[in-house]
Amino acid sequence: MPYSVNISVEAPIENQIHEITYDGTEIYQPPLSLSESLSKYAQKIDFSKTSEVEVKKEFSETTEDNKLEADSKETFQSNLWPWDTVRNKLRSALQEVCVLADVLAIAKDKRYMVLDPVQQEPLETKSMAQIYARKKALSGAANVLLTGAERLKTSQTEAARNRTVPDFHIELLRLRQNWRLKKVSNTIIGDLSYRTAGSKYIQTGTFEVSKTEEDEKPATPPSSPSPLSTGPVVPKTNTALKVSIPSELKGVAYIEVLCRKDQDDLCSANINLLGNGHTTTHPDMHWQQKLEAAQNVLFCKELFNQLAKEAVQLQAPIPHMVVGNQIMATVLPGIQLIIGLRHSTNVEKKPANSGKTEHDHVLEHSLHQLLREVHHKNTHHPFPHPATGPLGPSKKRMCAGPMAADRYELLEMTKTETLLEQIIKQAQHFFMRMRTEYVLDTIAKEVKDPLISSHWNTLNSPTQSCVKINISTHGYDALCRTPLVIHVGEKTLKCICRDGKVMYMSYEPQELRDLVFCHINQHQILAVQALAKTMGWQSLANSNHLGTGAVEPLGNASSCLLASPTGDRIIAVRCEPQSGVQVSVAHSPRTDFFPSRLVTERKWEHLGGQFRDVRLEKMEGRNFLHKMELLMASLTSNS
Amino acid sequence: MSGQRSLPHSKEALLKLYRTRLKDDVKSMLENFEEIVKLAKGEHDTQLSRMTQCEQDTYEMHVRAANIVRAGESLMKLVSDIKQYLILNDFPSVNEAITQNSKLFRTKQSECDQKLMSLRDDIAADLYDLEEEYYNSINK
């Protein structure tokens, strides 16, 4: 301690400097007055820290305090602001003290209030009661737990026991395996559009998957959900899964294809991808069927949309009409193809013209196929040959460079057929085929003598088919037969004749008819000649297109001349498409010869005599050739 | 799994959420049970009277028991949610299903094609005979 230095800490005597003038003199603040310094120190007092003890002390000296307070109030009233907190505290203290004084006064009176001593020891309760109470509480809690556990257990066993009602998750798994699903926040959204299969249709096919409410479930045993079977399933199926489909995809849709000739239905086909037209929208249909129906609706809509778009864009000689849900296109003169979209959401309503569907569903299938093909093309691009090449151009165009294709070829490559064009072509072909069939059948019915048999080729395409016609005579098949091949195209017929000639015909059935009749005549003449050869007769002349005789309305008459082995008899045959066959016979020389002045020698009789008509219809024989054979035989034997 | 790493953030967050839900529920069960046991001990000094305290304890026990049940049910819900998530995001199994389906349909298609072909051949042969017969007969 002796080494320590004393440091005295004291406030500077000087007052605070208020201002320093330019000449360096300092102007001091005047010192605080007594009251000012008091208030300054009083402000520093923190009254909130005053302990209860002090308060109690204050209470004990109530009267003194009161006095003091009154004094202080009077004293510092003038200087309100610095003393404000102090005053407030003191006032509240005064209030409390006043209240306490009042209470004490009332308690002292003992008329209105009695003060009891506070019981220091807690009420003695029996410990057994407490245990019972606790036990009760525990059992209550256990009860809650047990009921909760029971509920969980029953819900589990219920699901396990009721195997009839498939579990939601199993159903969901099945659904997931067959449809695209994703979770968006709290809902499961599915997609039934064909977009992943290459469709570019704008309409979305989203549906929502939700759990079936417990009370909605019917109690009947369900059929197991088989996602692959599209056959008739019991409509009342229990499923734990509910599928909600947007309203525009509900119901049943199909595309109706009608071929109309002068307002008269020739044929109609109903497209319904689900097969039969009796698919109705049952409210509790199995989801698989429901989704398939909706997908079908979407597909039909896309198909129709595509067709309508093409119908408007196509520049046809007779413009296609699109009215409402119908497209009208002219296939052949007088024949119209009507494609309509039928969409019925009504459960009761059946397709209107289900009775008319006696025709084959070729057009139905074709339309279906065409759109699928478009889808397929959209997703399956040909691979670029150098792997770095652009994706998209066809294989043919890839080769265009190396093959030095010219402009025309390149232009040809860019041409693509629209769906409508293709379906119109198919319809045209359909009609051509029908007409050809009809013509051939009627000719076969009309013409009995040479047999006309036609065989349709099994191998054909939607726009091309082939029929082989055989003209032959019954019993003389081996002798002569005239084969004809007709290729039926979209608007033209191509006929390949016996001699290799190729004829092109238009869609008018009369042309084919004429051609076949012409060939029938030729066949008769050729057959007679072939027969004559076997009989030892000689064919003198033969003309397919005879210039003589009456003018035929179609084609020319054909004829031939035959001479007997000895040469004394001549048969002339003339075939006309219209009037049939004429046969004439001439004898030379006559069996009896009498020399006259004009014809002096017998040899002149060999020049030939007069032809006499043979009445074929009176002759015996099954058919023309048979009659001719008999005729020749008789003429031969007579000589 | 390397596939797990490439999961988008939302999926990862969802999986994390499932994990936290599981932990929370289990924790809630445990805590509530512990609290019940603590209450059963009944050693706490309060200013309340014994009867009131008993009543409060009973009530608290009930609530905590209910909490345990709720946590259990929440776990069940979690299980079902995870199942749903798995079903919707299990792409390998979906791919498998698709391959299987396409295989099935392909075999079906070839089967149908075969049947149709044989049917066509039969019909073609029969048609030829019938045509022959028809066109060679008198009655047409």
From TrEMBL, chain A:
Primary location recorded for the protein, binned into one broad class: nucleus
GO CC annotation: core mediator complex; mediator complex
Biased composition (Low complexity): 226-235
Assigned keywords, A-Z: Activator, Nucleus, Transcription, Transcription regulation
Compartments, record wording: Nucleus
Superkingdom: Eukaryota
Keyword Nucleotidyltransferase: no
Quaternary state and interactors: Component of the Mediator complex.
Name used for this protein in its record: Mediator of RNA polymerase II transcription subunit 17
UniProt source species: Henosepilachna vigintioctopunctata
TrEMBL record, chain B:
GO function term, MF aspect, one: transcription coregulator activity
Pfam family, one: Med22
GO BP: regulation of transcription by RNA polymerase II
Localization, UniProt: Nucleus
Tagged with keyword Transmembrane helix: no
Main location per the UniProt record: nucleus
Keyword Nuclease belongs to the record: no
UniProt keywords, alphabetically: Nucleus, Transcription, Transcription regulation
Entry-linked InterPro entries: Med22 (IPR009332)
GO annotations of cellular component type: mediator complex
Role description: Component of the Mediator complex, a coactivator involved in the regulated transcription of nearly all RNA polymerase II-dependent genes. Mediator functions as a bridge to convey information from gene-specific regulatory proteins to the basal RNA polymerase II transcription machinery. Mediator is recruited to promoters by direct interactions with regulatory proteins and serves as a scaffold for the assembly of a functional preinitiation complex with RNA polymerase II and the general transcription factors.
Sequence similarity: Belongs to the Mediator complex subunit 22 family.
Protein name per the record: Mediator of RNA polymerase II transcription subunit 22
